[in-house]
Amino acid sequence: MWADEALLFERIAKVERHRILRSLPLTAASALLLGAGVAWSAQPVFELVALPGLTDAEHTDAQGNHVSTARAIDGTGLVFGSSLRVSPAPAGPADHGVTGWVYDPDTGVTTRAALDAVPYAPLDQICINGVSDTTALGFGLGGTTCGDITFPRYVWAFDSHDRVRTIVGLSDPDHTNPADGNVLNQLLPYSLGGRISPSGHIAGSTTRWQPSLGTSVWVYDSTSPQTTRIGLFDSQHTAGDGSQNSHPSLLSEAGNVAGFSERYIDGVWTNYTPWIHLSSTGVTRRVGFYDGDGRGSTGFTHADGHQESGLSVLTDSAYAAGSSARFQGSELFGTVAWRYRIADDSMVSLGLADPIHTRSNGSRDSAVTSANDSGDVLGTSTRYDGGTDPLSVTAWIFDGESLATHMIGLFDAAHTSAEGLQTNMPHVLSESGHVAGTAIRFSSSTPTTEQGSSVWIARAGDPVTKRIGLIDSATLGAATFSTSSGEQHSVFSALFESGDVVGLSSAFLADSPLGSATWYYDASTETTRPIGLYGLRFTVSDNSFTSYPTHWTESGFVAGAATGSDQYPVLWIYSAQSDVVSEIAPPNPPAGVPVFPEILFLADSGWVVGRFTFFDGSSLDGTRRFFVWTPEGGTVYLDERIDHGFEAAGWVGIETIESVSGDRIVGSGRRSNGDVDGLMLVALPEPSQALLVSMGCLAAVARVARRSRKRPSILE
C-alpha cells in the first residue's frame, strides 16, 4: 500500500509540476515559490510556446501559409484561439472566416473546438466559427455564422475536460424553419451580462417558427449536459396566433438566468413579464409585484389588465432587484422598487416613503441601480416640490442585514439649489457594501446655477456620507481645485472592495481651467492624495496638464497616462501599498521620435503589458513594440526577453497581445516563413533557482495528494 502511494505521488508530481506553475496566477505562484525561498526574476524571461492553430487544407492558402492567433487563456491554462479559413484555396490570400481551436499545454495538442466544416460551415461560404467566451473551468463557448446571416445559426460549447463539442440551443420542429430546415440561435448579448457562467451554464435564444414566428429562451447546463427551454409560455404569455416571445437578459455566476416574456390580454400584446430561472431546481419564477402574486399585492394592475415590472439586477447567486409600476385605474401611480431573495421566493419593497419623496396624491417613484450577494441594494427615489412635479433624485442604500433604508449623499448648502434641488446619483455598490456616487454642486452667489460635482462614499450599515476627492484647499503646485466662486469638479472612476476610490478632479489657475488630476482615496486613513505624473515634462505649452486612470486592480494598483509636453501620452502606475508612482517609459527610445504608448493589461501583481508605437517614418502606422513592466524590473521589450532568443526560434515580430493570465501572455506573432501563428509566453523562474522551484512544487503536490488520494483527473 505504501509503495503504491509513493508511486502515485511520483506520478502526480511529474504531471503536476508543470501544471501548477502554469495554472496558478502569478501572485499565488509567487507565494508558493517564496515559501521555498524562490522569487520570480525582476526582469522576467519567457518561454515561447508556438501555437500554430489549425494547419490543414481548410486553413492553408495556395502559398502554404496560414494565419492563427491565440485569443484567450482560461483558468485551467487552456488557450483558445482561431485560425483563418482560406478553403477552397484561392490563388492568393482570402478571408473565408475563422475557425476556433483550443490548445492544451499539458499534451501540446491543438483540437478543433468549432463545428466541423460540413455541414455546419460549408467550405464555399464565409463562416465565422470561433470561440467567443471562456471560463475559469475549461469551457469554451462559440457560434457559427455563415453567409449573410446576422447572428449565429449554431451555438456550441466545448468542454475541455472530455474534448466534447456540443451544439446547444433548441432544434425541435417548432424551432426549425420549415422552408429550409435551418435553426437560428443567438447568444446572450455582451452588453447584458456574461454569456457563459463559471459553472458552465450558457444562455441564449432561438427563433420559433411554429405555430407562428416568435423567440424562445434556453439554458444549457454542462453538467447534464442538456439544453432546456425556459421562460414563461403559459396562456397569459401566448398571443392569439400562438406566438410566444421570451428574451434573456442576465446570467449569474451560479447559472441563474433572468429574462422577460411578452404578456398578452385577449391575444394582444400588452407588456413584458420578468422572470428568473433557477439552475439549482430548474424552476422558472415570475418576479416583481403584481396583483395575484400570492403576497397580497394590490394596485399593480392597469384598468385594461396589464402589469408592468422590470428586473434590473441579478447578483452572483442570492438576489435579484427591480421595480414594478402601480396604477389607479388607468393612471400610473408611481413605481415601487423591490428586492427578491431566491432562497425563499420572498420580496421586500424598497425606496424612500417620507413626505418629501411622496407626491401630493400619495404616489412615489423608486428605482434600483445595483445589489450584492449580501442583500444590500442601492437605488434612487424621486424628490418632489410638495405637489406632483419632480424636483430631483435622492440616493439610498438598503442594508441587507438590518433591513433598514438610509438616504445617502451630500445635502449641505453647497449641494442645494435655491429651489431646494438636491441631486445625488449613486454609481456602484461593492460586495463589501461600499457605495460611491456624485452630487451636483450649486453656486452660492447664483444658487440656481450648477457649479460642478462632488464625489462621495457611504457604506451599508454605516451610511454616513463622506465627500472625497481633491477639494476645497487642495493644491498641486500652483494649481488649485476650487475657483474663488467655489466651482469644483470631481468625477468617479473606480471603487474597490476595501472602500478605496479612484477619481479625477479639475484643476484651475487663477480661476481658469488648467487640466485634471487623478486621485486615490485611502479608506483606512480617510485621506486623498493626487497620483499620476505632474511637472514640467507633463505640462503642454498653454500650461495645461492632464493625468487620468485607465486600468486598476483590487490589489491596489492604478495605471494611467499623463499628457507629455509634446502632447503624446506618458504612462504611469501607482501602488497603493508603497504609495509610489512610477513612469512606464520605453527602454532606450530613439531620439526625437514621437511615441504613442498603450496599456493593454494590468495584473493583480502589478505587471503591465502594453505597446509602444514609434512614429519613426517607417510607415504611417509606425513601428510597434510590445512590453512588460514589473514593479521590480521596470520596462522591458517582450521580444528581447525570450529564452534562447526570439529570432533564433524563427520569429520576426509580435503581432498582437490578446489575453494575460498571471504569468502567461497569449497573442500572435509573425514567423520568418511568413506564417502568423498564435503564441504563448510563460514567465520562467530564475534559472539558478530551478532546483528549489521543483522541490517547492513537489512538496506542495505531496500535500495535495495526502488530502485526496484519488485524483482521476490528474492520472488520465
Detailed description of the structure:
It contains 5 helices and 46 strands. Strands 26, 27, 28, 29, 32, 33, 34, 35, 36, 37, 38 and 39 form a 12-stranded mixed sheet that branches. A hairpin with an 8-residue loop joins strand 41 and strand 42 (623-630). The protein is flat. The two termini are 21 Å apart.
Q: Which structural traits does this protein have?
A:
716 residues, disordered N terminus, mainly beta, 12-stranded mixed beta sheet, 8-stranded mixed beta sheet
Distance between the termini: 21 Å
User: Beta-strand level of the residues, as a percent range?
Assistant: over 45%
- Gyration radius (Cα, Å) is 29 Å
- What can be said about the biggest beta sheet? 12 strands, mixed
Counting helices, strands and paired strands, the structural category is mainly beta
Number of strands: 46
Shape estimate: flat
Helix content: under 10%
